[in-house]
Amino acid sequence: MSDVGCISLADVIDGQLRFNHDNLATFFDLEMFKDKPICIVSIAGAMKTGKSFMLTYFQRYLNSRGWENQSWIDDDQKFATDGFHWRCGIEPDTQGINVWGTPYLVKRSDGKEVAVVLMDTQGLFDLYTTKEDNVKLFTLSVLASSIQILNIKDLILKTDLENLHFCVEFAKIASSKKSTERIQLQSLLLLIRDWKPANSKPYGFSGGKSYLDGVLAEKKGKAKELNEVRNFLHETFKDLQCFLMPNPGPKAIKSNFDGRNDELDGDFLDEVKIFCESILHPDKLVIKMSGNEQMSARKLAYTLAACDEIFLGGKLPLVETLVETLAKAHYESAFQDCIDLYKGKMKVLLDGSRISTTDQVEKVHEEAFKEAIEKYKLVEKVGSEKYRKHFEKYLKEQCNSWKDETILIKKISNKLVTDYKKKMREILRDSCFSPKYLENLHHDVADQLVKDISVELQNNTKIHFKNCSVAILHDAFIEMKKINKENGKNWKIKIATGAGVAACAGTAVAAGVALGTGAAIVGAVVVAGAAVGVGCTVGLGAAIAGNIAIVQRVGGVVMSILQRHRRNQRSNQVKERKTMTQ
Asked: Which terminus in the chain has less CB density within 10 A, N or C?
């Protein structure tokens, strides 16, 4: 994997959360995501609790393919500086929400590839950001991730549970819907850092489970609000776990600490190894889901972008507003998938010479329309009916609009193909071009015709027509290539390997030197009196490549070489006479 570094998806600027929409769109549009399940591992928590430092071990495991390499944690001199940036001290390091710039492609035992994304978040509840923005950051992290790690130092405190309250409240509203409409979060893993053995629970998942069960057990006499939080944590997340991680050792708190393995306690490295292998092994990855379906990268981008609208302002949005916003993103993404399905089926109507009749367009439209609507109706219901109905209606409108555009384009496509063939035949008359030159001519003629024909079209139809023009002219271009090839045979160009003689207007150029003019005379080499391996008969009086200007340039080059050769001959003769005189 290339060392591309981090990409910022969101940042807190002047106390306000801001999305970087360009980065968001570019990252989730990467080809590596196409048709692949996604696992997003995000780590959040209070500042200076080792979040970015832990992510470097995740990267080391993935880079080294730790599931195939037991020594992936490396030797004593290995630095923890080969990934996400981190540093010791009290100043914050990570800003906003960052992801590693390239997903890790991991193959499971069933042969399917998973795109793994590592996400880092700014330290929560520090002195630099408001409580509202902290909650927004954590909420975004949870919504984006399939595994949300919450970094907690020493012990789970009352404040830690209170800081989860917004997400719990969100789940409370979402879970009050019908079961088919419920929005449920996936996996929350509480990572307790610097766990002390004196606390009686052993390191790892087993000690973490015992500890978390005790913390979340309902206790009489405690505040009703906290008991509610504890109860809803179990209902909010499909999977709730806890891992107890030992302290990395006394050297880790020094200002010059660089993360070398030999500066870390053995218990810490052992548990880090177990932790990474437990969540990042290919067969243990948690796939990002939307209800009962795998969430696509496109839908995830829609979801995060939708949150930007309601997170702009200093105040937190109402939970109901957040639910509705996520529902809108859910159905918008579903609409886009369905309209892409419809367009893909309609596109074949405009491929090459297979320009269809209006009846054929109507028939394909009916089949594609039915399939697109059925696909949309199978989308899991989320939130209120408002957005589901809105995007279903919009899908029908867009399909019918696309059908009308296709019929119009079908009609003007006949003119495009006819005009294209007429223009190209005029150019190709008695001429032969190199393949590259012919391709350039094809693009020039096609672009100009498309531009001329589409002058009066509306913008959307104009774009549609331009995008289809390559497919429309595909077969016509193949026909032009055949004509060009046939013209080449008529020119009786001889290409021979081993020897060649160049003739220019019937005069032999005899200089013992090879003159290369491949670019001008379509790959030919003018040879002056010597066998140089490749030869071709060239007549200056002929219209090479159908362009007199080319012939003139070739003639000029030939005459220039001849003149230089004659000057050299005269110079050599003078030298010979001087030598004889002496």
From this structure: C
- Is residue 288 classed as helix, strand or coil in its secondary structure? coil
Helices (H), ranges, 67-176: 131-144, 158-163, 165-175
User: Which contacts (CB < 8 Å, 24+ apart) does range 541-550 have?
Assistant: 541/505, 542/491, 543/430, 543/431, 544/520, 545/431, 545/432, 545/433, 545/434, 545/437, 545/521, 546/427, 546/428, 546/429, 546/430, 546/431, 546/432, 546/433, 547/431, 550/520, 550/521
Q: Provide the token pair at 216.
A: 């979340």
DSSP helix/strand/coil, 530: coil
Question: How far, in Å, CA of 202 to CA of 206, rounded?
Answer: 7
> To 10 degrees, the CA torsion angle through 40, 46, 52, 54?
-80
pTM of the model: 0.63
pLDDT tier for residue 27 given thresholds of 50, 70 and 90: confident
**Residue range 482-508, pLDDT digits in tens:** 998 888 887 654 333 333 434 333 433
| CA 468/CA 474 separation, integer angstroms | 10
Distance CA 304, CA 19 (A): 9
Q: Are 529 and 509 in contact (CB under 8 A)?
A: yes
CA trace torsion 288, 292, 297, 301 (10° rounding): -100
How many angstroms separate the Cα of 498 from the Cα of each of 33, 63, 119, 533?
52, 53, 63, 4
Domains and CATH numbers, the chain: 6-299 (3.40.50.300), 334-488 (no CATH), 496-581 (no CATH)
Nearest partner of 484 among 413, 549, 424, judged by Cα: 424
> Could you tell me if 152 and 191 are in contact, meaning their C-beta atoms sit under 8 angstroms apart?
yes
Q: What is the pLDDT of residues 166-213, one digit of tens each?
A: 655 654 554 444 433 445 678 899 999 889 876 788 999 999 999 988
